[in-house]
């Protein structure tokens, strides 16, 4: 298993990145803000695009250090990566499977079953730990529905029916999501999913963390030689990292949602960390992003036992582990793709 390296998050706007020896230098309006050695980094994520020097991009590309540019609101702009890793046979097999509905369903079925089961256990964990503080009947009902949907996914006859079941499961899980918010209810609540733009604090936090998880997952897939843009469940669309979205479905609730709930319920973020723009879009402030990014890095360092590999790894390496397992299945080394079941 690879070693988890650090990600450099550049949170300030108008920062230019350049190479100096084997370090990355951060400059703003000609003033040097700081520099960091590159040998401990696996990626650089810059919010507020100013740019990076060709020398830095070339150095990082050669050493498989991805550079991701995002807007200050957390919208993905571009990713700079090096040569495709892995052999061409693996990607050709990936493309072949993506064109066959029956083969794509074998992988998608396992991914979605894990997604629904993990959503169920997020609900069950809240019931176990905070039964006297939540709507017990509402959460028990949601948990029972997740069990039913997981069974229906396995019985689905085609991709269209599978997408319908997954969509209904997601809606019922999100209907229960507001019950999982135990603190700061006046500022943090969940009524419906709003993305472009997020219309409240909770949607702004979820969207930001989903983007972080999607970027980490895309980098992991590319790192093992797969094409992050060609998925099995999510349909191909120009510019969309469909396979990364497939894999992160397993991790959405148990990683990103639990992380967001922890930030709110432990009051690590407050309403002061958000701002509302003229078009009613709600965004994290610069200080708010700093808090979230610091906590995200700490979360990625936490150790768990991988349910299939039976090895202790950090949360940050889970996307890499799942990418490796997916690549092994596509190569024919495994009889089925083993998804990530969290409990």
UniProtKB/TrEMBL annotation:
Cofactor: Mg(2+); Mn(2+)
Binding residues annotated for Mn(2+), in chain numbering: 166, 234, 249
GO terms of biological process kind: defense response to virus; maintenance of CRISPR repeat elements
Superkingdom of source: Bacteria
InterPro entries listed in its UniProt record: Cas1, CRISPR-assoc_Cas1, CRISPR-assoc_Cas1_C, CRISPR-assoc_Cas1_DVULG, CRISPR-assoc_Cas1_N
Keywords associated with the record: Antiviral defense, DNA-binding, Endonuclease, Hydrolase, Magnesium, Manganese, Metal-binding, Nuclease
Subunit organization: Homodimer, forms a heterotetramer with a Cas2 homodimer.
Family the UniProt entry places it in: Belongs to the CRISPR-associated endonuclease Cas1 family.
HAMAP family on file: Cas1
Protein name per the record: CRISPR-associated endonuclease Cas1
């Amino acid at each position: 298993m690879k070693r988890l390296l650090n990600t450099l998050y550049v949170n300030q706007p108008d920062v230019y990145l350049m190479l100096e020896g084997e370090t990355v230098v951060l400059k703003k309006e000609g003033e040097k803000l700081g520099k960091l050695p590159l040998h401990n980094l696996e990626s650089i994520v810059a919010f507020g695009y100013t740019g990076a020097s060709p020398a830095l991009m070339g150095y990082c590309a050669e050493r498989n250090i991805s550079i991701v540019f995002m807007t200050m609101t957390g919208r993905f702009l571009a990713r700079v990566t090096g040569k495709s890793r892995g052999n061409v046979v693996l990607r050709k097999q990936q493309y072949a499977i993506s064109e066959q509905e029956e083969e794509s369903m074998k992988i998608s079925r396992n991914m979605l079953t894990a997604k629904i089961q993990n959503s169920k256990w997020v609900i069950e964990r809240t019931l176990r730990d905070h039964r006297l503080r939540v709507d017990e009947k509402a959460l028990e009902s949601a948990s029972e529905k997740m069990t039913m949907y997981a069974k229906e996914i396995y019985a689905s006859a085609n991709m269209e029916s599978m997408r319908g079941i997954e969509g209904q499961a997601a809606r019922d899980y999100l209907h229960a999501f507001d019950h999982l918010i135990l603190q700061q209810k006046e500022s943090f609540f969940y009524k419906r999913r709003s993305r472009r733009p997020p219309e409240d604090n909770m949607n702004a936090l979820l969207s930001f963390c989903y983007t972080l998880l999607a970027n980490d997952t895309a980098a992991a897939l590319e790192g093992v030689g797969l094409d992050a843009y060609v998925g099995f469940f999510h349909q191909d669309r120009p510019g969309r990292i469909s396979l990364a979205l497939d894999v992160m479905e397993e991790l959405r609730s148990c990683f990103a949602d639990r992380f967001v709930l922890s930030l709110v319920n432990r009051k690590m973020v407050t309403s002061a960390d958000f701002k509302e723009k003229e078009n009613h879009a709600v965004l994290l402030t610069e200080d708010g992003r700093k808090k979230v990014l610091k906590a995200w890095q700490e979360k990625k360092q936490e150790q768990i036992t991988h349910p299939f590999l039976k090895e202790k790894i950090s949360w940050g390496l889970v996307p890499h582990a799942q990418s490796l397992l997916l690549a092994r299945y596509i190569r024919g080394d495994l009889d089925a793709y083993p998804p990530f079941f969290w409990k």
